[in-house]
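User: Just a sanity check before I run the rest of the batch. Below are the structure tokens for the first item. I only need the designed sequence back.
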């Protein structure tokens, strides 16, 4: 309960921040975008709270709606700063819980959020986990359609761990599949993990989707993923999630 009320106050106290992890084109090595990841620093009241703790709490209490709205605005603000700083025009991915996709006003909310910063909707990627997408698919689908009509891109996160209906997958207005980190982690030791990634890549090819491999930590993983024809990589091999100003430094020295 203490943590819940502290989280409630965290936005106003400016204790929430976004860190950003680069998404790297596997062939050109260019940074094609970033994923925003939320951090909560309680300062002298207890320091960093791991997202694995406060995100589930936010989901249970419904605070995730407020946090997600804040994250959309904050990511747009940061993208505009980078645009002016170093000409950033990549994609900004924000993690969205399924609850946000149940809102009839999501597309309008996004327009209203991006507009003041002059960030076009096609620069925004919303990441939703495969499991939460599939759970509420019937209700989420019209909202996805609406977002897609406005150019907002949808990425299916932790792909391969949920139970996607292949039938549905062909009908979804999505742009990207993110191979779950566990497959990348297991590539070296479990041949089956490589087969799963191979399958996801073929599936993505036939549906015209990008494939992102997350959790890439080593060069051998990167070269294997390249040979499997993934499009984009993300992971500690390139960079940890960084505060906005540090990400700018990173991007300017890696471009
Ligand atoms: O950020 P890692 O750095 O530890 O994040 C842990 C988990 O928290 C991940 O599964 C990630 O998807 C989730 N997460 C991180 N930031 C956000 C966010 O802004 N919104 C939502 N819904 N989940 C997030
Ligand atoms: O599922 P999602 O993409 O939201 O997960 C992001 C989570 O993965 C965050 O917790 C982030 O800090 C973490 N992460 C990012 N890169 C790596 C990596 O190379 N290795 C590991 N183990 N975790 C990573
Ligand atoms: Na994600």
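Assistant: Here's the designed sequence for the first item:
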């Amino acid at each position: 309960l203490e943590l819940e009320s502290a989280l409630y106050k965290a936005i106003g106290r400016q204790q929430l921040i976004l860190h950003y992890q680069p998404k790297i084109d596997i062939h050109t090595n260019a940074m094609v975008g970033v994923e925003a990841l939320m951090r909560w620093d309680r300062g002298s009241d207890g320091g960093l709270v791991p997202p694995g703790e406060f995100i589930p709490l936010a989901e249970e209490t419904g605070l995730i709606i407020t946090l997600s709205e804040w994250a959309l605005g904050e990511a747009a603000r940061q993208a505009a700063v980078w645009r002016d700083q170093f000409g950033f025009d990549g994609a900004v991915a924000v993690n969205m819980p399924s609850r946000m996709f149940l809102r009839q006003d999501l597309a309008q909310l996004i327009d209203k959020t991006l507009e003041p910063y002059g960030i076009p909707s096609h620069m925004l990627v919303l990441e939703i986990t495969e499991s939460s997408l599939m759970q509420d698919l019937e209700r989420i689908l019209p909202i996805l359609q609406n977002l897609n009509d406005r150019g907002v891109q949808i990425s299916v996160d932790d792909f391969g761990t949920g139970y996607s209906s292949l039938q549905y997958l062909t009908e979804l207005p999505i742009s990207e599949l993110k191979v779950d980190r566990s497959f990348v982690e297991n590539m070296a030791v479990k041949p089956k993990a490589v087969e799963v990634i191979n399958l996801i890549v073929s599936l993505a090819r036939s549906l015209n989707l990008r494939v992102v491999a997350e959790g890439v930590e080593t060069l051998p993983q990167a070269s294997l993923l390249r040979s499997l024809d993934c499009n984009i990589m993300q992971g500690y091999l390139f960079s940890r999630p960084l505060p906005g100003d540090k990400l700018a430094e990173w991007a300017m020295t890696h471009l």
